[in-house]
Design brief:
By secondary structure, the chain is an alpha/beta fold. It has 9 helices and 12 strands.
């Protein structure tokens, strides 16, 4: 009996990326190959299975055939099993480096305790930490610059798997001394509308967009009097009595308080903090670090 050919996991990984990105170009970025190389990988995989897997068309998003969609589901299971097998046989004593990108606003909520616990579990592993804003960091999960990124959920690439770390409502923040939140039009300090780091898949900064939608849905007049990216910049005009802002409302500096329900401002949606993982993340370290982050993260 003739032996059936074995499926190449790297070819399957490329097909999964094509399915998730609906683009040969974006899939090529994720797997670190040229677009022509990805095309050749698909052709090789089609030759192995004897089926057309991708619908060939000019322009528009890439679609899979029915056989392609079936194979992608099996491929996801195979790739997951491959990662689990590698984790099972990996030794925690082997040297490794995990590259963590983290939103600077969350560092005090977890990083110190996380690094201490990770070092106890993997004494020979190094965590390289790069801080920035969520919208700056998340695009680099696709090109493999980071193994993990902790960020706002609104910043992650579309259809990218994630692990939820924290969830809570956005809150209006006002001055304790100056009742600026009762002014109409409501003076606002928000993140800028023309953020230079905004990824192409984001229409607007989440905090800014959620704030403006809530006000416009209730017909409340407002005016934007200041803008800033960092929390310190958002809070400064509020402390001076010149504006209100919107954040998680946690760990506020002296002189500021959360506007309570019933004080006249509309309710706001939840903010969500997540971890996203690179397709080429080193295991078992990245999964272990993700679990430690989830257990240590706290605004309290």
């Amino acid at each position: 009996m003739a032996q059936r050919p074995a499926l190449d996991l790297e070819l399957l990984r490329t097909l999964v990326c094509i399915a998730e990105e609906a683009s040969f170009t974006k899939a090529a970025e994720r797997v670190g190959r040229t677009q022509s190389a990805v095309t050749l990988q698909v052709q090789k995989l089609e030759g192995l299975v004897g089926q057309s897997l991708v619908v060939r068309s000019k322009g528009g998003p890439v679609e899979l055939t029915s056989q392609g969609r079936i194979l992608v589901e099996s491929a996801r299971s195979m790739l997951k099993l491959n990662d689990e097998a590698l984790r099972a046989v990996s030794s925690p004593d082997l040297p490794a480096t995990v590259r963590l990108g983290t939103s600077s606003g969350y560092i005090s909520c977890y990083l110190s305790d996380t690094l201490e616990r990770f070092r106890e579990a993997f004494p020979n592993a190094l965590v390289e930490v790069t801080e920035g804003y969520s919208c700056q960091l998340t695009p680099h999960i696709r090109d493999g610059m980071f193994d993990l990124v902790l960020c706002q959920a609104s910043s992650k690439p579309r259809n990218w798997p994630s692990t939820e770390i924290w969830r809570g409502p956005l809150r209006w923040v006002t001055s304790i001394e100056y009742p600026v939140h009762v002014q109409r039009p409501l003076p606002l300090c928000l993140t800028p509308g023309n953020c230079p780091w905004q990824p192409p898949w984001m229409d607007d900064c989440y905090w800014r967009g959620a704030t403006l939608r809530a006000l416009e849905q209730t017909g409340m007049p407002y005016r934007i009097v200041a803008s800033a990216v960092a929390l310190e910049g958002l809070y400064a005009p509020v402390a001076a009595g010149g504006a209100v802002t919107v954040t998680t409302g946690r760990r506020l500096p002296p002189g500021l308080r959360v506007v309570e329900d019933g004080e006249g401002l509309p309710s706001l949606p939840d903010d969500v903090v997540i971890v996203i993982k690179s397709r080429s993340a080193v295991q078992p370290y990245t999964d272990a670090l993700t679990e430690i982050i989830r257990s240590t993260f706290s605004f309290d």
